[in-house]
Structure formats: structure tokens, C-alpha cells
């Protein structure tokens, strides 16, 4: 199997990583395909199974864990699991493409650890925790309790930034998108 590169984008919720990843997916010269994560939760808003996530039951998720079918997985919140199925990476590599991840920091670091030479691990840093909170509130997709949980988690996630290959400071989205494009292009072409 032809193994391509692995491009990991991690950040606290609201940092802009999903917007940056979507921007990069639109750049044909990067030959990227999005790694769809599995999740043991219900879809939110406009999310679609097989496009945004593979939504599977908690019981099914645990079966995949037991069978060692995940490249990485984590219980992000109680009974709320996320992970990357090995079959997803194989599917993308079979297409001859490079894999791009929009993934939490623990999962991103696990992938980097398993494939150190093939992986570019990028941490997207928000301007501040206050700005992060403002962005999460602006989304209007979650309760104040959920937002506060995400903010508490963000402090822990921000401390992991130095473990990544590079940090993009997302103070200005257009600048962050361009910086991400240049980084990924250089990594893929080396």
C-alpha cells in the first residue's frame, strides 16, 4: 500500500482549526483527503454520517476498541468517545492521497508518535482564552455548561502546544490559512 503523508491539525474548540482544514482541502495541489473520525455521540446541527463523522453507538465503539481497529481513540467526555479507524487511513492511502486530520490534541499527538516521519503535527493557537469563549458563544450550538467545559479543557490543551511540530497563531484567519498552506505544501513536497 502506498503510504502518503499525515497532516494533523489540533487545537481547542473555537481556535479555527476546522476552518483552516476546510481551506486546505480546497487546495488541489496538496492532494488531501479528510480523515473522518468516529464518534459515539449523536449528530449536532447539520452534521452528516460519513461526511462529518462516522456516528456509531457507544457499544459499537467499544467493540472497535477491543478489536484494536483504531489508530487512536479517546474518551473526550464521559461516554463520549472519538477516534480514527485504521480502515479510514487505509481508504485514503488507497486513493493515493495524503490524510488531513481535524482532531483533538491527545489524538493528534498519538498519531505523531506512531508515524513520526510521515506526520506534520500543527497546533492552532487562539489569540486568548477570552476570544475562544467569545467564538464558542457566537456559534450558538452548545449550552453555557458545555462551553465552560470546553474552556476548562482548552487550558490543558494549550499546555500541549510545544509538543507539536509547529504552532500557528490564529490572530487573523486569512494569515493563518496562508501560513497553514505554506507549511503543508513544504511538508508534502519534501
TrEMBL record:
EC code: 2.7.4.8
Q: Where in the cell is it found?
A: Cytoplasm
Family named by the database record: Belongs to the guanylate kinase family.
InterPro entries in the record, alphabetically? GK/Ca_channel_bsu (IPR008145), Guanylate_kin-like_dom (IPR008144), Guanylate_kinase (IPR017665), P-loop_NTPase (IPR027417)
Q: What is its main location?
A: cytoplasm
Q: Which organism is it from?
A: Flavobacterium plurextorum
Question: Which gene produces this protein?
Answer: gmk
Tell me if Cytoplasm is a UniProt keyword of this record. yes
Indicate which residues the UniProt annotation says bind ATP: 11-18
Membrane-traversing stretches = none
* PROSITE patterns membership: GUANYLATE_KINASE_2 (PS50052)
Q: Which reaction does it catalyse?
A: GMP + ATP = GDP + ADP
What role does this protein play?
A: Essential for recycling GMP and indirectly, cGMP.
Identify the Gene3D superfamilies for this entry. Guanylate Kinase phosphate binding domain, P-loop containing nucleotide triphosphate hydrolases
Question: What Pfam families does this protein map onto?
Answer: Guanylate_kin (PF00625)
EC class (word): transferase
Q: What is this protein's name?
A: Guanylate kinase
> Mind listing the UniProt keywords for this protein, alphabetically?
ATP-binding, Cytoplasm, Kinase, Nucleotide-binding, Transferase
NCBIfam families, A to Z:
guanyl_kin
Signal sequence annotation:
none
